[in-house]
Amino acid sequence: MIDKQLRVVLAEDSVILRDGMVELLTARGCAVVATAGTAPELIAAVAEHRPDVAVVDIRMPPTHTDEGIRAAVEIRTATPGVGILVFSQHLETTWAARLLAGGAAGIGYLLKERVARTSEFVDALHRVADGGTALDPEIVNGLMHGGRRNRVDSLTAREREVLELMAQGHSNRSIAGLLVVSERAVEKHVAAVFTKFDLPATDADNRRVKAVLAYLADTGA
Fold first, then answer.
1. What does the alpha-carbon distance between residue 153 and residue 53 come to, in Å, rounded to a whole number?
2. pLDDT of amino acid 205
3. Average pLDDT of each block of 10 consecutive residues along the chain (221 residues)?
4. Which of 85, 112, 165, 196 is the most buried (most CB within 10 A)?
5. Global pTM?
6. Beta strand 31-36 with 7-11: parallel, antiparallel or unpaired?
7. Phi/psi zone of residue 169: left (φ > 0), alpha (ψ -120 to 50 degrees), beta?
8. Sheet holding 83-88, edge to edge
9. Chain-centre distance of CA 164, in angstroms?
10. Bridge partners for 87 per DSSP
């Protein structure tokens, strides 16, 4: 049960879809503090309200090309504490890689047609707001097959599989269920990834997120 009420800024140029999402999120206990139909409105709303997370469509007026994702990158620079969840019907791996390039946590990218339940979307919002990741498998695959290999080359096939599922936002328990292995086995694979990516244990750093970002940087840049 999720008790924290999230403060959300919602950017969507379709009025019908935007109003529907506001109703759904409100019914799920979220507080939609502002909505925006254009990129400038989104940037202004985030600056004014400082939400936990901003939901951003990629293509917004006036050209309907990449205004939304450009605004998301600008928001990450200006207010890195605000989570960004890109929610679009378009798969743009170049911009996804750019959004992730800063190494900051709190990034999500979901494809509209692949979100089957409202609960999945709300769970993703909470993960992103808490500094985690929520990446659609298609985004992960696009990044993984779009560029060079560096640290990822050092991973075994199973370690890479575990890391891909981490990038999608799965917990160790969830990964164990999906791969039909013990949770202890997953923990060993995750520890091996941390070691190979040179991510020592510290109290301040979220190594899980850092590993995902290192993975995406190596495969998607």
1. 33
2. 45
3. 78 92 94 95 96 92 84 89 90 74 75 86 93 82 58 82 84 92 90 78 58 63 41
4. 85
5. 0.68
6. parallel
7. left
8. 31-36, 7-11, 53-56, 83-88, 107-111, 133-135
9. 13
10. 110
